[in-house]
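Here is a protein:
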Amino acid sequence: MKEVLELDGSPLSLEDVAAVAVSSQRVSLSESAYRKIRTSRAIVEAVLSRGETAYGINTGFGKLSDVRIGAHQLQALQRNLVRSHACGIGEPLPEDEVRAMLLLRANVLAKGLSGVRSVVADTLVAMLNHAIHPVIPGRGSVGASGDLAPLAHLALALIGEGDVFFGGKRLPASGALTTAGIEPLTLAAKEGLALLNGTQAMAGVGALALGRAVRIAELFDLAGAMSLEALRGTPAAFDPRIHEARPHPGQIAAATHLRNLLADSEIRESHRHNDPRVQDAYCLRCMPQVHGAARSALAHVRGVIEIETGAATDNPLIFNDDGGEIISGGNFHGAPLALALDYAAIALSDLMSISERRIDRLINPDINEGLPAFLSKNPGVSSGLMIAHVAAAALLNESKVLSHPSSVDSVPTSGGKEDHVSMGMTGALKLRQVVSNAEHVLAIELICAAQGLEYRLPLNPARQVGAAADLVREIVPPLKEDRALADDIAQLAQKIREGRFDAWRGEKHG
């Protein structure tokens, strides 16, 4: 990771966003960004000096766009826009998501198409580097004209109003800015609108959730391989010839990963030539097809989000063509992200669904290949992992409900002027919850599969599966008698989120 991430408006990777949002990497603006910002601001100033009318610069907004605003009211226009739109609802977004918003908003301004002064971008960067995080309620955005309410709360802090989190405390923004030596902004023409129009809330929340999703999508291969070993399954269905006959990139990557994970297994060799079963159940045999489809879906969503991190999404945009032109459009509309975020939630829910079937197969004495009921040493007196499966089923149910696409809905707003909206922020918040659910279902499968492997000793599983099971055992001890499992599941999910199992992630594909 570079010491400082330099912004010039180019797309950022999910890893770049996480480095700043989660790991607090410092940020700066490039010299090219300053040049582009100054050029676009000069065009705005020229329009004002000529007395021309331009939307958002000297007019009202939305339904009020036909109202011309006098020069003496332009500062009040921008300030009132920020204040009036800061009406978010609910719990504040976590600080990492707020940092992602600050980063993406600064990078958008660095493209030099927004018409703001460089001090606006500088203030966003300074807040990031001083860890001043606006209090931004998570709900209230319909995703067009962008994430108005969340971004208004962000902008409110820039002008020294509202609250922020700073130094572990919630306090007024004005005090935090003063402590950090940052001058609150007095917004000039166009600047309030440039801060509010855009998709940076759904993109920031979505980018961080997707980064976690990509990690666990690959780790479901590991959990599935461990379950297959515990159930004495066969890797025959992962033969490369099968997957070359249906060459979806995600499917090929998942099959390759599974073959690598399952190499050199004593358990497999013990039943290679004397197994009466012809083939495994779908939850084992079709892992490359199901896991691979999810990988491909998430790869598509990654592409959409990473394009958006370097996209100009406010309105109007200022172009340095033929002496400068200001053009109104609709880049603030969140449809590209809204559809993609829904797709990601659907993909993760399908991964949870096949994982839940493997969990059931591990604990169900009717189908678990001779393992004890509920993986308990003393079934009847002990319930073993019975309710761990119930918890996974509950999380799966919630995720199925959350996977109903918010992007298929639209509620006209702003007096009918904004008559089709994306609901992309709803999609981002849903995805975040689905990812959390998936992390916990993954943890439950790893716990159950590791417990199943205890009953296959002294036979050893494949080397990589065994090493991963050892790591599970460092976090969650074997279940020798019933105990409360909530902490075990939570701790393992946290270690997954922190990257402790990343050594077993699969090959990447585009």
